[in-house]
């Protein structure tokens, strides 16, 4: 996994600026892109894979933990600092909204209006939840940078794995909420167009 770092010219460490990853990828990709005269698809694929790993906080931290030599995963679920209850709020809210979206598609006019009203009512809660997840991501970035400041002394493989898992959960939540907001907006927008 250290190749992921060296392919793009980075030292293995917890924090790598995503803008630097993108810039180095573009710089190196020009020469080996399969459409270039001297392009090499294999090299380009390795560059793309390295970019994907280094640009994703969870993947980068997992790669770094693997590089440190331990393939054991934490036994307990990762603790999400300051947001333990959010995990128990996200799933039920998304399920409720999914049910409402299904109902909105099959109900008669009056029932559809009532369902759309319920969708409008849960939208502020969904927006609030999205803000909470965004704050969790900000806190994870701060924590990752703090870990990077202590790198490699005082940083353990379990710390890296736990942080990687927390990034993975928070990124997944952000994507689920984004897709749900898009679906709700589409449903409410199509109702307004009628």
Brief digest:
The chain is an all-alpha fold and 194 residues long.
What does this structure look like?
With 194 residues, the chain is mainly alpha-helical. The chain folds into 2 domains: 2-55, Helix Hairpins, CATH 1.10.287.110; 86-193. 75% of the residues lie in helices and 0% in strands. It is built from 7 helices and no strands. The protein has helices at residues 2-7, 18-32, 41-55, 57-67, 86-106, 109-149, 157-193. Helix 3 (41-55) packs across helix 4, helix 5 (86-106) packs parallel to helix 7 (157-193) and helix 6 (109-149) runs antiparallel to helix 7 (157-193). It is flat. The termini are far apart. Mean pLDDT is 86; it is low at 71-77.
Tag the structure with descriptive keywords.
mainly alpha; Helix Hairpins; 2 domains; 7 helices
Strand content: under 5%
Secondary structure tally: strands: 0
**Largest beta-sheet details:** none
> How many domains make up the coordinates?
2
Q: Could you give the distance between the termini?
A: 54 Å
Helix content: over 70%
The radius of gyration over CA amounts to: 21 Å
Which whole number gives the mean pLDDT? 86
C-alpha geometry: flat
Helical element count? 7
What pattern of helices and strands is seen along the backbone?
HHHHHHH
**Overall SS class:** mainly alpha
- Unreliable residue stretches: 71-77
SSE topology:
Elements: H1 2-7, H2 18-32, H3 41-55, H4 57-67, H5 86-106, H6 109-149, H7 157-193
């Amino acid at each position: 996994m250290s190749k992921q770092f060296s392919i793009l010219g980075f030292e293995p460490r917890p924090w790598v600026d995503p803008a630097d990853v993108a810039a180095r990828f573009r710089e190196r990709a020009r020469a080996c892109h399969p459409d270039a005269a001297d392009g090499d698809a294999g090299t380009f694929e390795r560059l793309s894979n390295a970019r994907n790993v280094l640009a994703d906080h969870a993947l980068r931290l997992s790669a770094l933990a693997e590089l440190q030599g331990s393939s054991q995963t934490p036994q307990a679920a990762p603790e999400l600092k300051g947001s333990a209850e959010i995990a128990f709020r996200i799933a039920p809210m998304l399920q409720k909204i999914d049910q409402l979206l299904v109902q909105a598609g099959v109900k008669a006019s009056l029932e559809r209006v009532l369902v759309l009203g319920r969708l409008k009512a849960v939208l502020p809660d969904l927006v609030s939840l999205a803000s909470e997840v965004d704050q969790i991501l900000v806190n994870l970035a701060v924590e990752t940078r703090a870990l990077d400041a202590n790198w490699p002394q005082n940083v353990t493989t379990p710390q890296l794995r736990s942080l990687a898992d927390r990034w993975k959960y928070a990124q997944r939540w952000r994507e689920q909420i984004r897709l749900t907001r898009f679906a709700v907006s589409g449903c409410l927008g199509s109702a307004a167009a009628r």
